[in-house]
């Protein structure tokens, strides 16, 4: 799985909004500056997130963006899907739509297992979990293996 810059920026912007719920709506410029995200790129991402029902926008001098639901109700998967589409695809196709034959036949269950594991992690972690540094134990456990931090 590859996390695109668009998905990374969207999650970071959503986390900035999750962390600042008491401050009222945040302007895109403030989010971009706090997270070092190119402002123009962020505007497009925020528009996608608005259309996807994750953020609300308010116009005017006191305007800006805020989360549409509590951060505890928005998963990291929700954010990624909103800006990038399916979490796992193979050549742009969802695994259940694939078919293989011969020695490659076992690839399909492998891709399904990868998708199931990615879903389990990303759907099981909310913006509130990340913003409060309270990742679930199953996620923390995966990071305790030193090999998880290196590229083979």
Describe the fold and architecture.
The protein is mainly alpha-helical and about 150 residues long. It has one domain: Winged helix-like DNA-binding domain superfamily/Winged helix DNA-binding domain (Arc Repressor Mutant, subunit A, Orthogonal Bundle), CATH 1.10.10.10. The protein is built from seven helices and two strands, in the order αααββαααα. Strands 1-2 form a two-stranded antiparallel ribbon. β1 and β2 (about 65) form a beta hairpin. α1 crosses α2 (about 30-35). The chain is globular and about 65 Å long.
Essential attributes:
mainly alpha; Arc Repressor Mutant, subunit A; 7 helices; 49% helix; globular; Tscrpt_reg_Rrf2; WH-like_DNA-bd_sf; WH_DNA-bd_sf; RrF2 family transcriptional regulator; DNA-binding
Query: What's the CATH architecture?
Result: Orthogonal Bundle
The CATH topology is given as: Arc Repressor Mutant, subunit A
Largest sheet: 2 strands, antiparallel
Q: Identify the CATH homologous superfamily.
A: Winged helix-like DNA-binding domain superfamily/Winged helix DNA-binding domain
Spatial ordering of strands, largest sheet: 1-2
Instruction: Tell how many strands the DSSP assignment holds.
Output: 2
Question: How is this structure best summarized?
Answer:
InterPro entries: Tscrpt_reg_Rrf2 (IPR000944), WH-like_DNA-bd_sf (IPR036388), WH_DNA-bd_sf (IPR036390). With 152 residues, this protein is mainly α.
